[in-house]
């Protein structure tokens, strides 16, 4: 489960910026094409925050839809899986959104 190491990295990034201040809430943006299972990150968050300034903090995850543009027919596409295929049959799709994994905001006490 790579979500455990991803969640640990998120917690480390937050504590690097917030220092000793108690964190109340973290908002995370996860693209649907990022290859990260949001529910697994939520599960891991409580485990990896234990004993840190994030202990007891709420994790809000905003999932961002995948988008792309077909290089063949130039159609704009909504992408729901990592298997990208345009209606025209082309697999030559430029993924433009949905691979993000970023901390959007942190609320401290």
Descriptive notes:
It comes from Fodinicola feengrottensis. Pfam families: HypA (PF01155). The structure is a single chain. The chain has 109 residues and is α+β, with helices and mostly antiparallel strands. It has a domain at 3-65 and 97-108: 2-Layer Sandwich (hypothetical protein PF0899 fold). It has 2 helices and 6 strands. The protein has a 3-stranded mixed beta sheet, covered by helices on one side. The chain has a 3-stranded antiparallel beta sheet with strand order 4-3-5, with no helix packed on it. Strand 3 (66-70) and strand 4 form a beta hairpin. The longest helix is centred in the N-terminal third of the chain and has 16 residues, at 3-18. It is elongated and about 55 Å long. The chain starts with a helix and ends with a strand. The mean pLDDT is 95.
Please summarize what this structure is.
This protein is α+β, with helices and mostly antiparallel strands and 109 residues long.
The total count of helices amounts to 2
Extract low-pLDDT stretches: none
Overall body shape: elongated
Order of helices and strands: HEHEEEEE
- How many β-strands, per DSSP? 6
Q: How is the main sheet built? A: 3 strands, mixed
Class of the domain at 3-65 and 97-108 in CATH? Alpha Beta
**What portion of the residues fall into strands of 2 or more residues?**
25-35%
Kindly report the average pLDDT value.
95
Q: What's the arrangement of strands in the largest beta sheet?
A: 2-1-6
Return the CATH topology of the domain at 3-65 and 97-108: hypothetical protein PF0899 fold
Distance between the termini: 31 Å
The structural class is alpha+beta
Which range best describes the helical content: under 10%, 10-25%, 25-40%, 40-55%, 55-70% or over 70%? 25-40%
- Second rung of CATH, namely the architecture of the domain at 3-65 and 97-108: 2-Layer Sandwich
Radius of gyration: 17 Å
């Amino acid at each position: 489960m790579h979500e455990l190491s991803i969640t640990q990295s998120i917690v480390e990034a937050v504590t690097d910026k917030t220092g000793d201040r108690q964190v109340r809430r973290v908002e995370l943006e996860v693209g649907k094409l990022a290859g990260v299972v949001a529910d697994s990150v939520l599960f891991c968050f409580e485990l990896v925050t234990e004993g840190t300034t994030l202990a007891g903090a709420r994790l809000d995850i905003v999932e961002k839809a995948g988008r792309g543009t077909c290089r063949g027919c130039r159609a704009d596409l909504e992408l729901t899986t990592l298997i990208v295929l345009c209606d025209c049959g082309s697999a030559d799709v430029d993924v433009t959104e949905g691979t993000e994994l970023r901390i959007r905001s942190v609320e401290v006490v």
